[in-house]
Amino acid sequence: MLFNSFEFLIFFPIVFIAYWLLNNRLKQQNVLLLISSYVFYAWWDWRFLSLIIISSFIDFKAGSQIFKSETPQSKKMWLMVSLVANLGMLSVFKYYNFFAESFSDLMQVFGWQPNDLTLNIILPVGISFYTFQTLSYTIDIYRKEFEPTKDIISFFTYIAFFPQLVAGPIERASNLLPQIEKPRVFKKPWFNEGLIQILVGLFRKIVIADTIGAYVDLVYGDIELYNSTTILLATFLYAFQIYYDFSGYSDIAIGTAKLLGFKFHQNFNIPYFSKSLTEFWRKWHMSLSYWLRDYLYISLGGNRKGIVITYRNLLLTMLLGGLWHGSSWNFIIWGAIHGIVLSIEKFLKSKGYLDKVKSIGFLGYPITFCVVLVSWVFFRAQDLHSASLAISKIFQFNLGAPYIGDINVMASSIFVLAIGIIFDLYLFNKKINLEEFGSKFTGVKLAVIAAVIITLINLFYSSSNNFIYFQF
Asked: Are residues 203 and 176 in the same domain?
C-alpha cells in the first residue's frame, strides 16, 4: 500500500478514528496498530509477512537472552543468532543473485562457463529498513544501552509500525519502543504539525518529484541518445527528484506517526545546503547515516585506532552503505565516491587546511553539490555500462542545446522545482524545522494551506509512481 494511493486514503482515516476511539486502552491500541501494520504490508504481498514475524520472534527472544546471560560468551552467542538470522534473510533475498552473477562473470574471465546460479526470488519491500531497525534493538541490549521489553505485542508493533515499515525512517528502540509502551494522548498541536507535514510530503512527492521524474526517466532510459548538456540537466533534476521523493516519504511517515501520538526523529534537514560532504551526511537520510555511524563505523573502530584505520573504516562504512541501497556495482561505486571524499575531508581537517579557507567557505556549497551530483549518476543509471557512458559523455563537454521534449512538461518541472527550492530556502534562512511548521498556523490558515496543497496534488496526481526508496 502506497502513501500516495487511494487505498491509503481509505485505510488511514479508518485506523485513525478506531485508534483514538480506543483512547486510554493502551493494549487494544497497540493490537490495532499491529494488525493495521500487517494489513498495510500484506497489501503488497501477504507471503512476506512471515519474514517480519520470524525476525520479530527471533529478536524478541535474542534480546531477552542477551540481557539475562551471565557470561560474555552467552551474550555474544545470542547476538550472533540475531545477526546471522536477520542478515542471512537479507543476504538471500537481496544479495544472492548479485553475488551469483558476479561470480559467474568472474569465472567467464578465466574461460569457465558455469551453470546459471541465480534464483527466481523477489526482493521483499522494506526488508533493508526493518532489518536494520530490529538489529539496533539487540545490539543496544548487548552494549547495555537498552533493556529488553517484556511485552511481545509492543515489540512486534515496534518492528512493523506501518508509517515507517517499508522505507523508514529507521527508528531506534530507545526512541520508539518506550512511546509504544506508554499511554498516548491526542494533542491538537501535534495534529496540526502532522497534517501539514503529510501534505508537504505529498506535495514533494506527487507535484515535484513525479513531475521532474518524467524527464529524468526519459533521458536515463537511453543515455546514448543525448549530449552532455542533456545528461547534466537530467542528473541535476534527478538530484532533486530523489530528494523530494524520499524526503516526501519521510514527511508523510513522520506526520502520520505524529497523528497517532508518536514522535519520530527528523530524517532530512535540507541536505543540499551543506558546505561539506560530512555535513551533507548529517542532513541526508539521517536515520541511516547515524545507524551506519553507531553500528558499523564505531564497531569497526571508528577513529580510535589511528588515521589510516579511520580512513579504512570510513571507506568500508560507505561501501557497505552503498551495498545496502542495492545489489549492484553502481551502488558500491556510489558508496566508494562518498567514502573517498569523506576521507579526504577528514585528512584536510586533521592538517588544518580547512581552517585556512574559512573566508571562502561559501564555495563549499557548490563543491559539495557537484560531488553529490556526480555520485548520483551511478545511483540513477540502469547499470554500470550506462553509468560509465553517462560520466564519459558529461566529461567530454559536448555541450549543446539540451533536449527539452514537451515544453509544457519542462515548464511545469521548472515551476514546481522552484516552489520546492524557495520553500526550502525559507526554512533554511528562518531555521525552521518542518516537523514543527504546522504549529505556527491557526485553524483557518491551516485549512487554506491544506486546500491549496490538495488542489495542486489533485492536478498532478498519478497513482502509478512508487516511491524510489521502495526498491531498497
From this structure: no
Tell me the Ramachandran region of residue 155: left when phi exceeds 0, alpha when psi lies from -120 to 50, beta otherwise.
alpha
Distance, C-alpha 385 to centroid of its chain:
26
19 part of a folded domain? yes
* N-term to C-term CA, the chain: 16
Distant-in-sequence, close-in-space partners of 447: CB < 8 Å, separation ≥ 6: none
- Residues annotated catalytic, as ranges: 325
Measure the CA angle with vertex 390, ends 388 and 395; round to 5°.
95
Residues 260 and 239 in one domain: yes
Q: Looking at the domain assignment, is residue 202 inside a domain?
A: yes
Is the overall model pTM greater than 0.85, yes or no?
yes
Cis (ω within 30 of 0) for the bond into 178? no
Query: Residues 168, 201: one domain?
Result: no
pLDDT in tens, 98-124: 778 777 877 777 778 777 777 788 888
Domain span including residue 276: 189-471
Same domain, 201 and 158: no
Q: Are 83 and 150 in the same domain?
A: yes
- What nine digits make up the cell of 148? 529488553
pLDDT for residue 24: 85
Residue 264's pLDDT band (boundaries 50, 70, 90)? very high
Asked if the structure places residue 278 within a domain, the reply is yes
For the segment 305-316, the average pLDDT, to the nearest whole number, is 88
Among 356, 381, 297, 331, CA closest to 128: 331
Give the tens place of pLDDT for each residue, 215-234: 999 999 999 999 999 999 99
Domain count, the chain: 2
Which residue has cell 534562512?
Answer: 429
Name the nearest CA neighbour of 272 among 185, 189, 373, 193.
373
CB neighbour list of residue 122: distance below 8 Å, 6 or more residues apart = 45, 48, 93
Note the pLDDT tens digit of each residue in 398-422.
788 888 887 888 888 898 899 999 9
